[in-house]
Specification:
By secondary structure, chain B is an all-alpha fold. Chain B has helices spanning 2-15, 18-21, 29-54, 78-101, 111-130, 134-152, 159-190, 205-222, 231-237, 240-250, 252-263, 270-292, 297-325, 328-363, 374-377, 379-392, 399-415, 429-452, 459-462, 469-487, 493-502, 515-540, 564-574, 576-579, 605-624, 633-649; strands at 61-64, 71-74, 544-546, 582-584, 599-601. Among the domains of chain B are: 1-197 and 216-264, no CATH class; 606-649. In chain B, the strands form two sheets. Chain B has a two-stranded antiparallel sheet. Classes of the chains: A mainly alpha, B mainly alpha, C mainly alpha, D mainly alpha. The interface between B and D is large, with 81 and 83 residues.
């Protein structure tokens, strides 16, 4: 199963670029959902077999990241009645370029970090960093609240990939706790987005700038 | 013994305002009780000082105190006792004066608050002069600063009072922060938390830093030019008996700090004393020059505090010079001059402020150009104010002359030094002091003349009434003290000897200064005056009266009198390079010019042209930096990313 | 005992959620606060408090922070019923349980010895605070909540990444991946240095965001500005202390792992930078609640600066943790009262608080003096200790800059505070709010603590702090 | 106190109290001589004073006791200052620091003279007072620089030592010349003589001293005039004392030298007043600053 890890990570990186390049919000949510599925597969393949813990985590990941959260986001999208991310702070092409740069930097940076023998040559660390970076980029350059939530999800996914290397360190209940926190966070964000769209008739977060110096 | 008494006095003074808070707001019981308490406390404090003069205890009290770095170390030596006596003496007189000046029935909103913080202020000052531990000292220091702030802003409904309060608060805080650094450095160098500087090399970087920090930190409190910017406003705006306490006592705490810190350095470099001497001279000359330009009686008095602090610093600088060149008599004369002037200034400045308070009480104004002719309406106040004015000019036979004489003697001794060339650098000081004396005379003739002599310039002055006995009593006590020290300086010599012992000077003052000759000269002067007065009186009895001749002008009016501004105009013009006066002089043209009025004022040049503009510039620069928080969450997230990347790249 | 500290507030939270009465629900807060305080005192009295096989354990640092959190929550819980009685127009059905969950989660942070578990608890506090911030339900509070949530979550996500890096550092060193604090400290010298280094940076930025160190502080003014006073108190006093505790845990690991020099430099740099940023934004600040937020940024800077200086500085910093938390309570709660009485947060509208609210105004003013480090209030002792540490341990320039920043902050803050408390109050009175026992006594209680700690540090408190300092420095 | 010192003191007192008006007479006589007139007799000032003392007085309704205190202080302070001046190495009152008292006594007199002027409420007298205090503040440093030179040379702050001939180094002579010159200027300024003020002018707007005493009449004016002459006499005696300080301790020689020196000074003043015009008021400060510079330079010379 270990052999599947790197191909899966490459797909994950491709999805990152998809997230950076698309302007349609529905596609963005789908991309995020697919990342959830990829993560579940990665859990199984990294653990090198279907243990009870791996299965539970994979199941929870699929359930939450591919089904529950995208559903919540889709609902929020429907309520806000918008479809596209127009005029991001940084355009789509530059975003893609930056994303590429970030991925490259992640590869470079990851080389400075010595890997344990069992992960030698693996893409786990660079992919983790690149995904986190992508998430950050979405957060910092997109205007729509929903896109930012997707960015946050991508950031979490990157962290999650890093966590894949640490099976013993994170016992099951901590792992579940992390996932639970994520869901609650997205849930709360969803509620706030609902309030934003009601109060401001838009989910453009650059309009949220009455609190400033 | 004296330590315990001093601490008890502090505690009692701190609590003096408390009972009033629980008594009815309208009654007089609260203020009387507070006054009685603080008077008791002050009696105890003065007794403690006197005991310490008689037999300074070698050990003091030392108890553990459960705060980091703190210890309850208290000791009253001669130096402490000098200040202790002054604090409690003037505080008591101020409290009595307050009974008449700030009556609870007239100030129901802030009277209780004022008395509470007045007591606290007294206690904090008492504590800081006996404290021998840095934390305890700083606690006393800052409580004093805050209590003073709260008394200055007693009438915080007035915008001007709020402004000066803020300025004072900022200035005093800057000074306190310097002291933080000072004590931290001392601790680093000696490992101890007292004023003991043994082991610190005076000429080394730490010693230099300590001296400069002390100069800045204590100099701000003392109001040494150019760190005086808070002082004129604060003294002008506080209730007058608080001004008296501040000007007479509070700013001296800066002097105490300087004297106490310097006492530890047995071999200071020459430039320490030189710096202090020069700063003192600058402060004295410019202080009095600014004073001459003022229209506001209390501001005028406040600038004289800057002047007198300058004189005191000259004395201290002289003492340091004496140490640097190994000339013990110079140390004695400088220190005795400085410390006696501390007392003297406390006495006559408090007297003058209380006199000004009586004028405000009787007329409702403190504008010199609205007063005049009060001598006939407030004869007692006028006489007492005159005593203060003569004393502050350093004229015989009053106390100001004695302390200035000590400083002069020291300055002449310095110039007469046999070895080295350093003395030439001190040669400017005695003439500067003479200039200061002459200018102070000009200023106080102007003030006394504008307020008490001639004809009333306004209805307020016309309707003036004499102050009640509660206000006159303290003034009489102060005037009597001024006369006592002036006539019999030998009385205070033991106190000065005891204080000089804190600096390691063992020579008695009487061996360096002809104290009994001063008494003789003063008595002769009084006799000559009395003789001349009697002679003239015998000739002019039963003479007739007529309006002022005024070169034959037929219809003189009060508005034609020389005003205080016109009196000062020439001198202000001479010092215009430093004072930067503002004048609004109309240009008169044509045969029938329109009605015009001249107006001139001397604002504080350092405050208005240096401090405030730089603060405003800093404020603008800070506002320009606000673009980094424009409310854009994307940018905020970008900052985090940027920080992360930078930190990962760095190292 | 260890478990009870977490479970009791959770149980109260469940009860509050289930309770139907809007009127009586707030009274669960003082009840829980009292019980929690009692439990804390009991726990502090015992030498060893642990549960679930070492997952929860009260170590010396934990004891200190737990005491702070518990006292602060107690004071807030006393204040809450009177405050919520004034806010009958808003349902407190979410508010009260969230406060209780917040207490449970902070207790969990303090006690957890597993860094993953600690992370979960910290993220949980972030989420529990969101509804608290959102209590007012107007546009500005929505905005503040959104920013708080997004920035806070991102920061905490970075911290999780850092935590994983740390675990990987152990894995790389062949130590097996454990996230138990004690294991990591013990094995720290053998950890993989590059991983440790990167992990510390990530954790510093992550938990630094939570603490509100500049330049990650940007959520703070918005959140503190819009939060009810009681929430501001808990955020500025309790939550930041917990985030600081998390930071210290990783600092200990990094220091044990040979990264001490780097960590100290970073802390000194960021500490001074935070103070500078706070100073810049406090100058001419017209919103007194935002001003308090910047004051919090400043004090977070002081905390990490003290740690960065080390030695006596650590003691000073931990003492300051206590002092800052309690003083912030005074400031936020009294500012809340003033806000209520004037209906404005701008110093242009709010004048004469000393007259309209003699007690709150005086406490606000005293709190200002205290928070800026004036004797005889407690923060003076800690700030002075830090200066002393800087000057005696070869950081004279740092000490001088520290004092300069304190001066700038004082000037800025003084302007705003004096504008609020002095002068004649305006005619307009929106709600006729006046000081009353319920809204003043808790603040006075906190103020009493500030004064007490300023003139006398009881041996028990002193021991608590010095034990924690010894623990942080690895001497215990 | 021996009988001899008592007698000496009495002689000292009587000379200093009785002779001052004569000095004014000498000055006037000199001026008259320069103008080619006979002039009033040298004793004329005495006749004036006696006449004034016998007159009745009128006091302004604006004034108070301060108005009368002016002349009293003027006479009393100058008289006491006279006691401080040593002649033949002996002064009736002498102690370390008496030089300061000497200077400050005149200041005390000035305080009350100016206060008396302000007491009238007259614009003219206020103006005179303002000028008086302005110019004397500038004269004061010049006097003190001079005292410093003497103080350094004699290592004392007592006029007794300063005016007693010691073994001063020869290079001190240059300094002393400068000091005497500066003090002469101070003397002219302090006593409101030409070129600072013209005692004979009739235009109040240009006066200094005279305008301050416009309202004094009769005995009070007499006291003012007497006090002024006393002040002139004492200051002139100081200058003479400096110039002729090495004439030794023999009382007869010393007194003789002093009196002839005073005569010379009076003639000198008369000459100055005859050959110079009054300065414009705005130039007065420059001259006084120049006097300061002179005596300050005297100090600098000593630092060689």
């Amino acid at each position: 199963m270990q052999v599947a890890v790197d191909p899966l990570l490459v797909v994950l990186l491709l999805v990152n670029f998809f997230l950076l390049g698309t302007s349609r919000l529905r596609a963005l949510i789908s991309g995020s959902a697919s990342q959830g599925a990829l993560l579940a597969l990665l859990v199984l393949s990294v653990h090198g077999g279907i243990t009870l813990q791996a299965a539970l985590i994979a199941l929870a990941t699929i359930a939450l990241k591919t089904i529950v959260i995208p559903a919540m986001l889709t609902r929020a999208l429907r309520d806000a009645a918008i479809h596209r991310e127009i005029e991001p702070v940084i355009g789509f092409v530059p975003s893609l370029l930056l994303g590429g740069l970030g991925t490259g930097l992640s590869l470079v940076f990851a080389r400075t970090l010595p890997l344990a023998p069992e992960h030698a040559g693996s893409l786990l660390v660079p992919a983790s960093l690149a995904t986190a970076f992508t998430g950050f980029l979405l957060l910092a350059t997109r205007r729509k609240a929903i896109t930012q939530v997707v960015g946050y999800l991508a950031l979490e996914n990157g962290v999650f990939v890093m966590g894949l290397t640490l099976v013993e360190a994170m016992p099951l209940f901590v792992e579940i706790g992390v996932l639970l926190d994520l869901v609650v966070a997205i849930f709360v964000m969803g509620i706030i987005i609902e309030h934003i769209s009601r109060e401001f008739s838009s989910i453009d977060t650059t309009r949220l700038s009455s609190l400033k110096e | 013994m004296s330590e315990a008494l001093a601490l008890a006095a502090c505690a009692l003074a701190a609590l003096s305002g408390m009972p009033g808070l629980f008594l009815p707001r309208e009654g007089r019981a609260g203020e009387r009780l507070a006054c009685a308490l603080i008077a008791t406390a002050d009696a105890a404090g003065v007794t403690a000082a006197v005991l310490a003069f008689a037999s300074p205890s070698p050990r003091g009290i030392s108890l553990p105190w459960a705060v980091p770095g703190g210890a309850l170390e208290v000791r009253v030596d001669g130096l402490s006792a000098m200040f202790l006596a002054q604090i409690f003496f003037i505080s008591a007189l101020g409290a009595v004066y307050g009974l008449g000046y700030w009556r609870q029935v007239e100030h129901p909103h802030n009277g209780r608050k004022l008395r509470l913080f007045y007591g606290l202020l007294t206690a904090a000052m008492g504590l800081l002069v006996v404290a021998r531990n840095a934390v305890l000292f700083l606690a006393g220091w800052e409580v004093m600063a805050l209590a003073a702030f709260l008394t200055i802003t007693t009438e915080d409904e007035k915008p001007a009072v709020r402004e000066v309060g803020y300025l004072y608060l900022v200035a005093t805080r800057l000074g306190t922060l310097c002291l933080f650094a000072l004590f931290a450095l001392l601790y680093g160098a000696t490992g101890r938390f007292d004023f003991d500087t043994r082991g610190v090399e005076a000429g080394g970087p730490v010693g230099t830093a300590i001296f400069l920090l002390a100069l800045a930190g204590f100099g701000i409190k003392a109001g040494l030019m150019p760190l005086h910017v808070w002082l004129p406003g604060a003294h002008g705006s506080a209730p007058t008996h608080v001004s008296a306490l501040m000007s007479g006592v509070l700013i001296k705490m800066g002097i105490y700090g300087l004297a106490r810190t310097a006492a530890g350095f047995a071999h200071p470099p020459l430039w320490w004393g030189g710096t202090l001497l020069s700063l003192g001279a600058v402060s004295a000359v410019l202080g009095v020059a600014f004073a001459i330009g003022q229209h506001d009686l209390k501001r005028l008095l406040a600038y004289h505090s800057v002047e007198n602090i300058g004189i005191i610093c000259m004395g201290l600088g002289l003492a340091l010079l004496g140490r640097a060149v190994g000339h013990p008599e110079l140390v004695l004369l400088g220190l005795a001059g400085a410390l006696l002037h501390v007392w003297n200034h406390g006495l006559f400045k408090a007297l003058l402020f209380l006199g000004a308070g009586s004028v405000i009480h009787g007329t409702g104004t403190r504008e010199l150009d609205r007063l005049g002719g009060l001598l006939k309406r407030m004869p007692a106040t006028a006489l007492l104010f005159l005593v203060g004015a003569v004393a502050i000019c350093g004229l015989p036979p009053l106390n100001g002359f004695v302390s200035e004489l000590f400083v002069y003697l020291g300055l002449f001794q310095a110039v007469a030094a046999r070895e080295g060339r350093w003395w030439i650098a001190t040669a400017f000081a005695a003439p500067a002091l003479a200039l200061v004396g002459a200018l102070a005379l000009a200023c106080f003739v102007k003030a006394f003349g504008a307020v008490f002599l001639g004809e009333p310039r306004s209805q307020d002055a016309l309707r003036a009434h004499e102050a009640p006995r509660t206000m006159l009593g303290p003034m009489i006590a102060l005037a009597a003290s001024c006369a006592c020290i002036g006539l019999a300086p030998a009385m205070v010599a033991p106190a000065l000897d005891s204080a000089a012992a804190s600096w390691g000077v063992r020579t008695p003052l009487a061996s360096a200064v002809p104290l009994e000759k001063i008494t003789l000269a003063a008595v002769l002067l009084l006799a000559a005056l009395a003789l001349a007065a009697a002679a003239l009186a015998s000739r002019v009895r039963g003479s007739s009266a007529a309006p002022t001749w005024d070169c034959g002008y037929a219809a003189p009016s009060a508005r034609m009198q020389y005003s205080s501004s016109s009196f000062a105009q020439m001198l202000v013009g001479l010092f215009a390079f430093a004072l930067r006066p503002r004048e609004h002089a109309p240009r008169l043209a044509g045969p029938f010019p329109a009605r015009a009025a001249y107006h001139g004022e001397v604002p504080d040049a350092i405050l208005d042209r240096l401090v405030l503009p730089s603060l405003r510039a800093a404020g603008r620069a800070f506002e320009a930096l606000r673009f980094i928080e424009r409310g854009n969450v994307q940018a905020y997230l970008g900052y985090i990313l940027l920080t992360l990347v930078l930190l990962l790249v760095w190292k | 005992m260890a478990l009870a500290l977490v479970l009791v507030p959770l149980a109260f939270a469940a009860a509050a959620a289930a309770m139907p009465s809007q009127k009586w629900r707030p009274w669960l807060l003082p009840a829980c606060g009292t019980v929690h305080l009692a439990l804390t005192i009991l726990a502090l009295g015992r030498p060893d408090v642990a549960a679930i096989g070492g997952w929860l354990k009260l170590d010396d640092l934990g004891r200190l922070v737990l005491a702070v959190v518990s006292v602060l929550f107690f004071a807030c819980s006393l204040y809450a019923p009177s405050y919520l009685a004034l806010r009958t127009e808003r349902s407190n059905r979410v508010f009260v349980p969230c406060l209780l969950v917040f207490l449970a989660m902070t207790s969990l942070i303090v006690e957890s010895q597993h860094l993953g578990l600690m992370w979960v608890a910290i993220e949980a506090t972030t989420l529990a605070c969101a509804p608290l911030l959102h209590f007012n339900h107007h546009a500005r509070s929505i905005e503040a909540t959104w920013k708080y949530l997004l920035i806070g979550s991102v920061g905490v996500a970075l911290a999780l990444l850092g935590t994983f890096f740390l675990a990987y550092a152990a894995l790389r060193a062949g130590l097996g991946s454990s996230l138990f604090f004690a294991d990591l400290v013990r094995e720290a010298p053998r950890l993989s240095r590059p991983w440790l280094h990167a992990a510390f940076v990530l954790l510093f930025v992550g938990y630094g965001t939570k603490m509100g160190l500049a330049p990650m502080h940007t959520w703070k003014p918005d959140a503190y500005g819009e939060a009810p006073g009681i929430v501001g108190t808990l955020l500025a006093g309790a939550l930041t202390s917990c985030a600081f505790l998390a930071l210290l845990r990783f600092f200990q690991i990094a220091a044990a792992g040979g990264e001490a020099e780097f960590a100290r430099q970073l802390m000194i740099g960021i500490g001074l930078f935070s103070m500078a940023v706070a100073g810049v934004f406090m100058a001419r600040q017209r919103d007194y609640k935002r001003m308090l937020a910047y004051s919090s940024v400043e004090h977070m800077g002081i905390l990490v600066l003290g740690i960065g200086i080390g030695g006596l500085g650590v003691f000073g910093s931990l003492l300051h943790l206590v002092n800052n938390a309690v003083t912030k309570g005074v400031m936020f709660l009294s500012a809340g009262n003033i806000h209520r009485a004037y209906g404005s947060k701008s110093t242009e509208d709010v004048r004469g608080a000393l007259r309209r609210l003699p007690f709150s105004g005086a406490l606000f003013l005293a709190g200002f003096f205290a928070v800026t480090g004036s004797p005889p209030f407690a923060p003076f002792l800690s700030e002075f200790t830090i200066v002393r540490a800087a000057m005696t341990q070869g950081h004279a320039v740092v000490g001088a800059l520290f004092l300069l920043m304190l001066a700038i902050v004082f000037i800025g803050m003084g302007g705003a505070v004096l504008a609020v408390v002095q002068g004649e109050p305006p005619e307009h009175e929106p709600e006729g709010f006046r000081d009353r026992l319920g809204t003043v006594a808790p603040i006075a209680l906190l103020m009493a603590i500030v004064v007490l700690l300023g003139v006398y540090v009881p041996p028990s408190v002193g021991a608590l702090v010095s034990n924690a300092a010894a623990f942080v420095e690895g001497r215990r | 106190m021996t009988l001899r010192t008592l007698l000496l003191d009495l002689a000292h007192l009587s000379v200093f109290l009785l002779l001052p008006p004569l000095l004014l007479g000498v000055i006037n006589k000199t001026k008259a001589a320069f103008a080619g007139r006979v002039g009033p007799p040298c004793l004329q000032p005495y006749y004036d004073l006696i006449k004034l003392w016998r007159k009745g007085s009128v006091f302004s309704t604006s004034t108070s006791w301060v108005f009368k205190a002016g002349p009293v202080a003027g006479v009393a302070t100058a008289a006491l200052a006279a006691l401080l001046l040593p002649v033949a190495g002996h002064a009736p009152l002498s102690f370390e620091g008496d030089a300061i008292l000497f200077a400050y006594l005149f200041a005390l007199g000035r305080f009350f003279t100016v206060a008396a002027a302000l007491d009238t409420g007259s614009a003219f007298e206020g103006m005179g007072g303002a000028r008086e205090v302005t110019f004397s503040s500038l004269a004061e440093p010049a006097l003190f620089f001079g005292l410093l030179v003497l103080g350094r040379l004699s290592r004392s702050l007592s006029l007794g030592a300063m005016l007693a001939g010691g073994n001063w180094p020869p290079r001190a002579a240059a300094s002393l010349v400068l000091v005497v010159a500066a003090l002469f200027i101070v003397l002219l300024a302090e006593n409101s003589r030409v070129p600072f003020d013209d005692p004979n002018t009739h235009l109040e707007l240009t006066m200094i001293h005279e305008v301050m005493v416009l309202d004094h009449g009769g005995p009070a004016l007499g006291a003012v005039l007497y006090g002024a002459s006393l002040k002139l006499f004492v200051l002139a005696a100081l200058i003479v004392g400096i110039a002729l300080r090495h004439l030794g301790a023999n009382p007869w020689i010393a007194w003789g030298a002093l009196l002839s020196g005073l005569f010379a000074v009076a003639v000198g003043i008369g000459v100055v007043e005859s050959v110079m015009a009054r300065l414009r008021l705005m130039h007065v400060p420059s001259l006084l600053v120049a006097a300061c510079m002179l005596s300050a330079f005297g100090i600098v010379l000593l630092a060689r």
